[in-house]
Amino acid sequence: MNVWQYSLLAVYALGSLGLMLYGTHCYLMSYLFLRRQKGMRCQIQAEVEAFNQGRGASDYPRVTIQLPVYNEKDVVERLIRSAAEIDYPREAFEIQVLDDSQDETREIVDRTAAELREQGICIEVVRRPLRTGFKAGALAYATARARGEYMAIFDADFIVPREFLKRTIALIHNHSEVACVQGRWGHTNRLENWLTRAQSVGIDGHFAAEQGARSYNQLCMNFNGTAGIWRKSAIEAVGGWQGDTLTEDLDLSYRVQLAGYQIRFDFDLECPAELPNHVVAFKSQQRRWAKGSMETAIKLLPAIFSSKRLTWGQKFEAFLHLTHYSVAVLMVLICCLTLPVLLWVPVPSGRWVITALWTIIALSAMAPCFMYTISGMVLRRGWFSLAHFPAMLVTGTGLCLNNALAVFEALIGYKSDFVRTPKSGSIGKVSKAAVYQVNANFLLAVGEIALGLYCLLALNAYTHAHKYVFGFFIAAYGVGLLTFGLMTLKTCLFRIRPSVAP
What we know:
alpha/beta; seven-stranded mixed beta sheet; Spore Coat Polysaccharide Biosynthesis Protein SpsA, Chain A
C-alpha cells in the first residue's frame, strides 16, 4: 500500500476506535446500572417512606414550582392544573408560570391562573420585559423573586405527578450536599407512531442505564431540564442559571458538582411527557441537545480536568458524557470513508484490517441497543425494546448528519437561538399536529439523501466483493439517512402552515 492508502486506512481506523470507545461506554453504563439498581431503588423508597411518615403539613419546606412556557396553547392548561393538584400542603408551595408567550397562550395562562387563585392556590404569572437568555433567562428572572427554598421545574409538555414533591423533598431536604433530584421521564404518546416508539426506547435507556449508573456510582450526572427539583441556595452559590450554552441544565448540573454538590436520581418517580411526533421536530430537539452538550464541554472540561474534587474516573466519565454527541461526527466519517476504503485499499493487505474495523463498528452500533434493551427489561418493557430494534437503528443512523453539523457549529463557536421543541398534546395512539412548527432545513435534507444514496452505493460495492457479514450495518446507515432526509424534504415541499418564531 502507498502512503495515501495507509493514511485513508488510519483515519478509518481512528474513527472506528472512537466509536468503540463510546460503544464500550454504553456497555459499562449498563453494567454499572444493573449491579446497583435494585439496592439503590429500595434504599430510596425506604428513605421516602421514612421522611413522610407522620409528618404534618407545617413540617414540609416551602417549594416554588416553576413552569417555563412559550407559545404552548395546546398543553399549558394541562401543565398548570397538574401542578395545582400536587399532593403537598397548599401553604407550603407556590406556582410560578414563567410565560414568555406571544400568542393566545397568554390568555389561557391568565384565565387558568385566576381560576386556581379562587380555589386557594398560590400562583403567579411571571412575564419579563425582554426574552433574553431564553429558558435560562426566564428561570434566572423568576428564581430571584421565588419564595421557595426549593425550585421544582417542569416544561410545558409534562404532567406533574401528584407524588412528585413528597418524593423529591424526602431525598433532598435533609441532605445539604444534594443540589438537585431528577425524576425519570415517562411518555404520554409512546405508541403514537414509529418515531415515538423508537424515542421512548432510547429515553428509557438514558433514564435507566445512564442516569441510574451515574447516580448509583457517584459519577457526575445531569439535570435534564425538567422533572427535577433544585435547592435554591445551590443555584445561587454557583452563579445561577446561565444562557451562554443551549443546554443550561447540563451547564448548571456540572457547575454545582464542581462546587461539591451532588445530584440524585429517583428511578421510580415517573414524570409523563410528550415525545416529538415528527422527524423535523425531533431533529430540531436533537440538534439543540447535541450543540448544547458540546458547548458545555468546551466551557467546562478545562475546569473538570483541573478539579481537585473529582477523581480521574469521574473526570473521564464526564468527558465521555459531555462529548457523547461526537459519535455523530464519527458516524459521518465512517459513512464517507467506507466506499474509498473498499475501492482503494488492496484486498490482500487490507482484508483483515477492514474486517477487524467493521467488527468494532458493528459492536459499537449494537451497544446503545444493548443498553436500551437492558433498560427496557428493568422497566418490564424488554420485548418492546427488542421489537423496535429496527426503528432505533434507523433513528440513530438517520440523525448522524444532523447532529454532526450541530457539533461542528459548537466547535467553531457559531451561536444560534434556543429553538424549542413543538408540542401538540398527543396522548396514547392519537396523533395530533402541533400548532407551532419548526422550519425544515432543505439543504440538510438534500445532504442526508445524498449521503444515504452514497451509503447504498458502498453497500453495492461491498456485496459485489462477496462480503455480506456487515452489509446490514452499511444498509442501516443508508436507510436511516434516506428516511430522515426524504421525510424532511417532504415537509419542506408540502408544509402549508407557516412556522412560528422560535
